[in-house]
């Protein structure tokens, strides 16, 4: 009897509990994906029109100017999000971690976790109100401080719409990324900090030689999550600009939504979804291949 079979017989009860998990994943993740892969080969309106077209949908994607514009936009959104999420929550987590007053530290932890319980649609609608036209909060504030010449239709002008969407959720601290960094810092042995103190390390040296190397695993995870979230997200753009003005804020996921549910081109939308899956898979592989986990202090 092989070792694998023996292990299976010994732990069969534990594996039995995994069956419902895999059943749910298969029903709502794996089966729909393979179905989308199959339907990307069809001209399908989701109802009564369904004809096999092979790779025609993918060939059309290569020539689709709107889709190509959306790729450029999502690359910009993703680059900005990666820079923000790898730096800002980490700085906040380090600062909170080194707060000596336990009550104050706990207050900051709760304060930065609160955004997790607020529905994202509420956040986007709030920022839509802030960026609204002539009487939006931001424009009214600029008028009050004497900077009326700086006012814009922030979400209605191509030159400001992209930046405005990037600015949503400022100061970009609250949420799961902050907690991941904080958990990584709390897992570092206190003895290392004692040694650093005895060696006379200042805050920057301690961060560079101890804290940053030992949260590599969190950095790697956050990078993957940020890439996936940015490439797949569309609700923020849908609520704020609906991809406009023109295609200046269009993203592939939003374009998929529009093609599938506004124009009933479910086959073409499936082709977009398969392309996004391939992009996410490639970026995740690159991240896993070239970014090291936490292993040692340099």
TrEMBL record:
**What PROSITE patterns does this protein's entry cite?**
ABC_TM1
Protein's membrane topology: Multi-pass membrane protein
Primary localization class, coarse:
membrane
* UniProt cross-references to SUPFAM superfamilies, sorted A to Z: MetI-like
Entry's localization field: Cell membrane
* Keywords for the protein's UniProt record, in alphabetical order: Cell membrane, Membrane, Transmembrane, Transmembrane helix, Transport
- Bilayer-crossing residues are 12-34, 74-98, 110-130, 266-286
Q: Where is the ABC transmembrane type-1 domain?
A: 71-287
- Is Secreted among this UniProt entry's keywords? no
Alphabetical GO CC annotations of the entry are: plasma membrane
Domain of life, per lineage: Bacteria
Alphabetically, which GO biological process terms does the record hold? transmembrane transport
Q: Which family does it belong to?
A: Belongs to the binding-protein-dependent transport system permease family.
Q: Which PANTHER family match?
A: ABC TRANSPORTER PERMEASE PROTEIN (PTHR30193), DIACETYLCHITOBIOSE UPTAKE SYSTEM PERMEASE PROTEIN NGCF (PTHR30193:SF41)
In Swiss-Prot or TrEMBL terms, this protein is called ABC transmembrane type-1 domain-containing protein
């Amino acid at each position: 009897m092989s070792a694998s079979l023996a292990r299976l017989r010994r732990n069969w009860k534990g594996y039995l509990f995994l069956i419902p998990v895999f059943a749910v994943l298969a029903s709502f993740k794996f089966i729909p994906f393979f179905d989308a892969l199959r339907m990307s080969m069809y001209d399908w309106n989701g109802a009564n029109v369904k004809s096999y077209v092979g790779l025609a949908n993918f060939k059309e994607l290569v020539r689709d100017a709107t889709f190509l514009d959306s790729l450029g936009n999502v690359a910009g959104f993703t680059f900005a999000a990666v820079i923000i999420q790898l730096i800002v929550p980490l700085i906040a987590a380090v600062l909170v971690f080194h707060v000596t007053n336990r009550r104050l530290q706990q207050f900051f932890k709760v304060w930065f976790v609160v955004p997790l319980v607020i529905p994202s649609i509420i956040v986007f609608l709030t920022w839509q109100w802030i960026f609204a036209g002539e009487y939006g909060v931001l424009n009214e504030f600029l008028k009050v401080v004497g900077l009326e010449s700086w006012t814009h239709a922030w979400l209605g002008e191509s030159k400001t719409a992209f930046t405005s969407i990037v600015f949503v959720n400022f100061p970009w601290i609250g949420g799961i990324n902050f907690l991941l960094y904080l958990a990584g810092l709390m897992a570092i042995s206190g003895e290392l900090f004692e040694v650093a103190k005895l060696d006379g390390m200042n805050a920057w040296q301690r961060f560079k030689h101890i804290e940053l190397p030992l949260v590599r695993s969190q950095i790697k995870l956050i990078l993957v999550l940020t890439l996936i979230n940015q490439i797949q997200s569309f609700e923020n753009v849908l609520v704020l600009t609906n991809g406009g003005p023109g295609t200046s804020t269009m993203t592939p996921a939003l374009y998929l939504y529009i093609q599938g549910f506004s124009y009933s081109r479910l086959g073409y939308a499936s082709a977009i979804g398969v392309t996004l899956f391939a992009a996410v898979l490639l970026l995740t592989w690159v991240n896993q291949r070239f970014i090291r986990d936490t292993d040692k202090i340099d």
